[in-house]
Structure prediction request, 477 residues.
Amino acid sequence: MTNVIRSCSPQRPDDVLTERAEVSADEVRARVTRARAAQAGWHREGPAARASALRTAADRLRDRAPAIADLLVREVGKPVREARAEVDRGAAILDYYAQMCFAATGDVLAPSLPASQPGLLYTERRPRGVAGLVTPWNFPLAIPLWKAAPALAAGNAVLIKPSPEALACGEAVGHLFDGVLPEGLLGVVPGGAGTGRALVEASDVVSFTGSAAVGAQVAVLAAGAGTPVQAEMGGHNAAVVLPDADVGHTAALLAAAAMGYAGQKCTATSRIIVVGDAAEFTEALVAAVAGLRFGDPAEDEVTVGPVINAAARDRVRDVVESARARGARVLTGDVRGHADGDGFFVGPTLLDRVDPAHRVAREETFGPVATVSSVPDLATAVEVVNGVRYGLVTSVHGRDVEALLAVAGGIDTGLIRVNAPTTGVDHYAPFGGEKASSYGPREQGTAALDFYTSTRTVTFAAPARPAAPPRLVKESL
Ligand code: NAD
Prediction:
C-alpha cells in the first residue's frame, strides 16, 4: 500500500499544506537512471549554460520571495523575519554558485617527462553523476539549495528527498528550476525513511543533513555501496561567557541564539557556561529570555514560534520534566506552552542546577531549552564544552584577547564564533562539525565543489619522436 506524505502547519495542525504519495524504491531507482542519462549532456553544455540556469533560479526566488517566505512560516513555523532571511540566503547561494561555474576545474603541474618529450601534467575535477540529497525540515529552502547549487554547478544531476515535514518547501525549490534544466536532471522525491534509503543506495554521491542517528545510518549505507557521502548532523552547542563580557549585550545575543525559531537549529546555543560568578549574567539572561516574543510566527516581532510537531513538543516537555526531577531549576519558561489554539507551542525555558549526567546536558533537545552553569576557570570551561559527543559550533564572549584565544584554541568544534552567536554562518565559508556532528567533507564554499566532483590526473606526453635516421659516414673521400 502506498504511504501518503502529509505536511501540516505546526501552529495550526489542521492546516494541511500538501499531500503526496510516497515515492517507492523502484521509482527512485528509475528516476536516478533518468537523471544519470540527462547528466552527461548537462556537463557538456558547459559553464555558461549552467551559470545561466542558476542565475534564473536566483531571480525567480527573489521574484517569489514574499510567497516563499510565507510558505516557510506556514509549513515549518519559522518566524517571519528568519524566513525572509532564509530566502535572501537561498538567492545568495544560487548567485555564488552561478559564478563558481567558471572557477578553475583543476591545476597544472610540471610533468616529469624526458626533456626530449614535451607534455602536460594536469588535474581535472569531473562531476560524479547523480547527487542524492536527503534534507531536514528546519532550513527547508537553504539546505536543499546549498547542496543542489554546487552539485549542479559542477555538472551533476540532482535528486532531492525533502523532509516529509517540509514537502511543500521542497517542491518550491524544485519549481525554481522548471524549464531551465534538461528533462529529468533535477527532481524532488517525496517520501520518508524508505525513500531516503533507496535514494542513498542508488545515487553516485550522497549529501545528508539531519539527526545524528539517521546520519550514521546513511553514512554506513553509502559507504557500503562505495558511494562518497557527507552527513551534517546535530549539535549540543555551548557559549562560553568570560568575566569581562558585556553582560546586557551578550545576554540578548545568547537568548536569541538559544530560543530563536524555538531552538530548532543545529547551531542553536544549548549550554551557556559562565566563567566565574554567574549571578549577574544569569539575571540578565533570564530577563532577555523572558522578554522574547513567543507565539504566532507570522507576526513580525515574534522570535519563538512553535516546535515542528506533537512528538517534538512531547520530547521537549519530557526532557525538562525529567531534568527537574533530577534537581534542575526552571529559571524562566513554561513547557506547557500557551493556549493559543492547538499549535505545538513550548515556552522558551532556561534551566540551571542541571545534573551534568542528565540528557539535557549531554544530548540535543532541538527545542527552546538551554542550560546555564558556572565554572571556576578557562580550562574547566574548555573541558565542559568538549565533554559531549557533538562538535558543531561554540561561541566565546569577552574582551581579553588572550583568554578568547585560549578558549578558542582548546575547543573541538568545526565552527568557532568569537563575540558572535553560535547561529549563522556565511554561505561561502566551509560549514561542518567534528565528532558526532559531521561525517565526511565540509559543505558550502569551494569545499562543496570539491565534494561533488572527482579529481583525475592526466599525464599528456607528446608522441615520442621517431629515432633519428642513421648518419651516413663517408668512408673515404
Ligand atoms: P531526521 O534525521 O529525522 O531526517 C532528515 C532526513 O532524513 C529527512 O528527509 C528524513 O525523511 C530522512 N530519513 C529519515 N530516516 C532515514 C533513513 N533511515 N535513511 C535515509 N533517510 C532517512 O532530521 P530532521 O528532524 O528532519 O532534522 C533535525 C535534525 O537535523 C537535528 O538533529 C538538527 O541538528 C539536524 N540539522 C543539522 C544541520 C547541520 O548542518 N549540521 C542543519 C540542520 C539540521
User: Anything to note?
Assistant: The pocket of nicotinamide-adenine-dinucleotide is lined by residues 134-139, 161, 163-164, 192-193, 196-197, 200, 209-211, 214, 217-218, 232-235, 266, 364, 366, 392 (CB under 6 Å). The chain has two domains: 4-233+437-461, 237-418. The domain at 237-418 is CATH 3.40.309.10 (Aldehyde Dehydrogenase; Chain A, domain 2).
